[in-house]
Amino acid sequence: MWIIYKTIVIKEILRFLRIWTQTILPPIITTLLYLLIFGGLMGEHIGSMQGVDYLYFIIPGIILMTVITSSYSNTVSSFFLAKFNHSIEEILVSPTPYWVILLGYVSGGVARGFVVGIGVFFTVLFFIDFEIYSISIIIIISLLTAILFSLAGFINAVFAKSFDDISIFQSFILTPMIYLGGMFYSVEILPEFWKNVSHFNPIYHMIDSFRLGFLGTSTSDLLISILALLIIITMLTIFAFYLLKKGVNIKT
Amino acid sequence: MSNALIIKSLTKTYANNFHALKGIDLSVEEGDFFALLGNNGAGKTTVIGIICGLLNKTQGDIQILGLNQNTHINEVKRLIGLMPQEFNFNPFEPIEEILINQAGYYGISSTDAKVQTKILLKKMQLWDKRMDIAKSLSGGMKRRLMLARALVHQPKILILDEPTAGVDIEIRRSMWSYLKELNSSGVTVILTTHYLEEAEHLCRNIAILNEGNVVEQTSMKKLLAKISHQVLILESSIVLPNRIEQTQFSCKRLDDYSLQVVLKSDTNITDALQILSKQGINIDHIRNAQNRLEILFLRLINEAV
Description:
The complex is a heterodimer. Chain A has helices at residues 2-18, 20-23, 25-46, 54-84, 88-92, 98-127, 135-159, 163-179, 192-198, 202-215, 222-246, and strands at residues 48-49, 52-53. By secondary structure, chain A is mainly α. Chain A has one domain. A two-stranded antiparallel ribbon of chain A has the order 1-2. The longest helix of chain A has 31 residues, at 54-84. The model of chain A has no long low-confidence stretch (mean pLDDT 90). Chain B is 34% helix and 28% strand. Chain B is built from 10 helices and 14 strands. In chain B, the strands form 3 sheets. In chain B, strands 6-7-8-3-9-10 form a 6-stranded mixed beta sheet, with helices on both faces. A 4-stranded antiparallel beta sheet of chain B has the order 2-1-4-5, with helices on one face. Chain B is globular and about 70 Å long. The mean pLDDT of chain B is 87. The chains are: A mainly alpha, B alpha/beta. The A-B interface holds A 1, 3-4, 6-8, 11, 14, 18, 81-82, 85-87, 89-97, 247, 251-252 and B 14-15, 52-56, 73-75, 77-78, 80, 82, 84, 86-92, 97-98, 101-102, 104-110, 149, 153.
């Protein structure tokens, strides 16, 4: 099983490395623009958020956003393309168990999320000097986030029947959730109603916990956030495995 | 001889309510070279898809070398190599990587996979192209790549769905020769093709599918024996006489150098040649006016309709 798993993961990693100008470089450039515009130019006028300088406040959210979009994009595009050009049949005719297929693709998504996240992190570090509160919180939250969105990307790819279908979720659900999850602001500044609504957005918990790892400041309970992430991951894993085993949109 | 494949009462109904297979029974002996023929939409690719685990069946049982597909799906998959009809590789992957990855999906270590890949790519005359992406290959090369990929885990049963479609004659002949070699080494080969000459040349047994039903399953020899007469074109290098005497077979002069001869099943070609020779007609070349299997195929399909 190890050889099969390794084959899928290496294939997935080589795939995104081969097209690094599409997969790794753009998020790094976008991050620099965010830092320059929101942190550098506008940040001076905004002042501080949750007791920290605005530039430092937005850094964790920006890094986590790249982890979310990269891990999601990797599985959704890779698995959909494999369906589209029928190369998924290479795996389906082999004795690869469904759980290994799922684990392999999710690991590929996590790998891209980490490669891009680390790339963005060091780019930020190159320009801005800051101290980290807890590296273990950062690793745990980024890992769980990458797993969750790799699974979401995989499920989207299973249902997708056209290239439009793989961008609909990202454009209309994922991006609004990221931006409304407190990436650029603290939900504490929202009116009570919208503050309560934000608590139902899982991305708020991810960004807030990730920010805790960087800055040592948070508005939610870390353990509850981790537990919520684990519950969502478990549910998505069961659903993705069911879809794969049933052969939805793969085996007709 | 044990069976490589047994299919019992296999049905397949697609989501759009199309009944692709209507309860077919089929068996293929181990070591056989077996032709699965039928018109477009007869159900050939559906049968293959179900055998290889690419499609869910509606009902029925499949046994591969004594293993039930329902209970031993992964063991069954290890025994089968599939060369599908449509190109189904990532066109942007280098061809060596495609083969090594495919071996990896069967749990073969990268060291062993590299050795096997080298052997197969050399055999398919693709070794020089190993670093090229699949997209850059010609149609014939892509077919050979898919054959190499189907063999990378050394399967006991090789299923070929239209293996020589779009392949030039020279490559087709070399593929035939390689497939015969594989079959001689003990690999059971199941072939679907629209080139009936290919099936007649390679296969020992045959099944004909029509609209989701098996309309015939027999040996190639028995099937061809059903032909009541054979139409041959005989060619001579010297000008033929205007009048040719014959009693045992009908003979028609097509032009100065060729004759069309219709032989009944009780007349053999040697007798016919002797009769012609006595009249000073020496024949240099003989060919079938029409593919024999083609005649039978069309007859069986028409009978089924």
